[in-house]
Amino acid sequence: SRIQMVYRKAVIRMRYYPEIWFMAYSWTTSVGRKDKGLAILKAGLDANPARHLLEKSQLTKDHRDFTEIHSVYERFFGVLCRKKNQEELPELKKQYSNTWINYMRLAHRAQGHKTCRDVFGKARKDEYIGWEVYEAGAMTEYRCNLEDRRLVAARIFETGMKKHSSHSTYVLSHLGFLLTVNDENSMLYWSLHPVPLLTVV
Fold it and tell me: How far apart are CA 73 and CA 75, in angstroms?
């Protein structure tokens, strides 16, 4: 079709503009060509390996090639892992955290809570993740774990406190959770727990 030809020429002439690849991907999947859409997304990632927009696409709620989806995310993390310039580190951590959270949500929608939990387990081993990943993991457990949601969510928050207790937003989120579940003892403990000078993030 004409639109398809326009996008084909656009990604050739503007190869290093991830927005163009994303538009081509979105249109292609909207007309039902999901496999072709994923191929476009992969080609765009090859051309722009560290550009986050391509990873934030709705990749695939409708795709069933989950192995390929996991592979795309792992490639993206591999690219970011090679970028260790100290000046870029704050932005790198934001990209890492946002991408891990998107990955967790996708895994939950597509393959269920167990896969989401597995992805969070991988994320915890990543030295660049921020407090946002722990918050997302804890709240996902609280909303979706039908057996011991309160206990598991509390443990995740507490684990995150060991690394991110200097971030006021995370501390407040943790205390807000304890207030929600009416855990007065833990709330009192963490309220009195000595923490470094809080950083507003």
Answer: 5
